Amino acid sequence: MLDFDLARLYEVETKRLKEAVRRNINRFYGDDFMFQLSKDEVEELSRSQFASLNKGRGSNIKYTPFAFTELGVSMLSSVLNSEKAIEINRSIMRAFVVIRKYALGYAELNQKLENFMIETDMQFSEIYQALTELAEQKRTDEQPRKQIGFVIGENKNTEK
Known about the structure:
This protein is mainly alpha-helical. The protein is built from five helices and two strands.
């Protein structure tokens, strides 16, 4: 987002927003927080499709604006001293707490699921082992056995 849009959002003058950024420039170090548009980019923004200036005082960009990333918008709320900026900064902090709680809850849930899977895997191993033993026992039971003992009617010595 551009500095003048954020100034409107945070209910401060663009000049005050830029002052706050310059006073706290170390907080915005790197392109992942903020960068300044080039003159070519500014010209592209301030001209219409017919390449003519917009009508009216203040409708054209005079100074190269700052462009803020998500991190920069968040950081900006901590360096501005308006009621709106303070309110937004509180909301951001609360959002981080909610996200952290969610992440911790997710990690806890993931650990419980992993423990459940380990227990279930152990149970499946025990069931598989029991079924294997039963199958082995059934195979042993189904094999023909050699009969033992006396069988009537098969005596060769008996003749009539």
